[in-house]
Amino acid sequence: MKKAVVVFSGGQDSTTCLIQALHQYDEAHCITFDYGQRHRAEIDVAKKLSAELGARAHKVLDVGLLNELAISSLTRDNIPVPDYESESSSQLPSTFVPGRNILFLTLAAIYAYQIDAEAVITGVCETDFSGYPDCRDEFVKALNHAISLGIARDIRFETPLMWLNKAETWALADYYQQLDKVRHDTLTCYNGIQGDGCGTCAACHLRAKGLQQYQQNQQQVMLSLKHKTGLR
User: Mapping DSSP to helix (H, G, I), strand (E, B) and coil, where does residue 58 land?
Assistant: First the structure.
């Protein structure tokens, strides 16, 4: 039986990964991390979505220690969330949570080890991302190698969105006939607003821009998605 663990926040990217994993694996298990994040509503959204979509199990893990160590606008109410126009490409944005994906992927791999899953799936992306160093392909592959050595088991880290832009990510949700659910039921917004979000933060801007591009060029974007992924 093929099993996978999906690092699941209830946002657009991880939900799209879960939707695909449910078609590719016999069982998809979700793991969500409670690290005292500013938009804590995402935990409830993740619980609801994992149940509705049919995940085999959903574990919510308390990792509050990250909140104590990692200073970010996503972990501190007194640090404002920047809008997309004020973010500088020359430095890390205040929404970067240092060490978050190092911790999340490591714990997800431990969980995968315990349930005998062969893969950990994460929705990180290098094509359209906010400048986070722990979303890069090089980082994921390096950590995957280190963890496989450390647990003496080849648990594969999968990054199905790594080379997709946001328009293609929307196309992937549409390929599985779940675009409306991803659009209206997920929570991507840095300000914690479900669906289309606040419209001003970087996450909302990237998401809305990708959706517009897909809606305007559906056939072309879908062909590009299939070319990149091998979907038919």
Answer: strand
